[in-house]
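Model it.
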Amino acid sequence: MDITNLSYLYSLSVRRVRDVPMKFSRRLLHKIDWENRLISLRGARGTGKTTLLLQHIKTSFSDPQQALYLSLDHLWFKTHSVYDSVEAHVLNGGTHVFLDEVHYQEHWETLIKTLYDDFPMLHIVYTGSSILKLYKAQADLSRRQAEYVLPGLSFSEYLELEGLVKIPEIPLDELLSDHVRKAMELTEGISIIKSFYQYLQSGYYPFYKDVHSGYDERILQIINQILESDYPAVENISNATIRKIKKMLMILAENAPQTPNMSRLYTELETDRNQGLKMLKTLETADLLNLLSSDSESLKNMSRPDKIYCDNPNIMYALCPNAEIGCIRETFFLNQLRAAGHQVVYPKQGDFLIDGRYLFEVGGKRKSFEQIKDLADSYLAVDDTQIGSGHRIPLWMFGLLY
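Modeled.
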């Protein structure tokens, strides 16, 4: 590659880095060990992976030719080689390359492994919006790379992005033991319940700041991209199958959290059990559904889940504008606990069992302990409550875990 072409790539990279906003950054930015030679950053579409990369470059590299950002969906790479571009960067003294949207490259897994092997002094970070394809290739690269996942905004991050309050992450055990004092400190001068309801409707994806009244439409566009572009890139499927999986998503969203009669559902979709379970798992892997089972291993073995939720409340509202508030509450709780890295299963009593120890019921402010009153380590996560008491913890506080 000649110097003119390399200069063009540097100019694209510098422009993107220069223009990235720095007022707010995701907390994962400061948790990633950027010293690793190969880093994979996964996450749903719209969670802010590109912004995170650009912010890291902006704060970590004074020499613009040391770190090169390449978005592989750029038209340049329709007629130019990614490998040649990276090689030219290395020969010019570059030490880091950031490859965004890698799924736009055919056989991208081979490209990453080849770059890693051919340039032993080069640090590589890559992302992809097509999380289905990244999941499929994970095993091939797992021995070489450090892997990170970027979920949507926590309620805590949302409050910071709104300029209301900056709250450090609160570990679950600390939240359970000290929630009253923390709530009293955090809610002073803030309409926390009002902000919480705004977050539930339109605060999970950072792009809510940019689209305003078109937020739900943007979520629906993302869902279509995943099912119409990402899914076919992983599996050899027909348009008929895509229509079936869209129909499955709508049926399950409208019935959440109760799992419908799956045999009847498969009949309605004109599919069999194996294909139906595969479609169901695909929707979970795509961060469109959240499947809950009484056995953490059963979902891995493609068994029927006990309950099915949308991945997060924003998707729930986009698909079902009149969603029942009880379902929204449970969807929020499940989403935030799993995003924070906790194991969540469906218990014999109560709504959720966390890390094999803590039992939770989720409900409104009048929710009682009747169902779990005699069980150890049992708690209520209650809505419409600014400050709790004892084992009654405000629901919004479970958005402070990450």
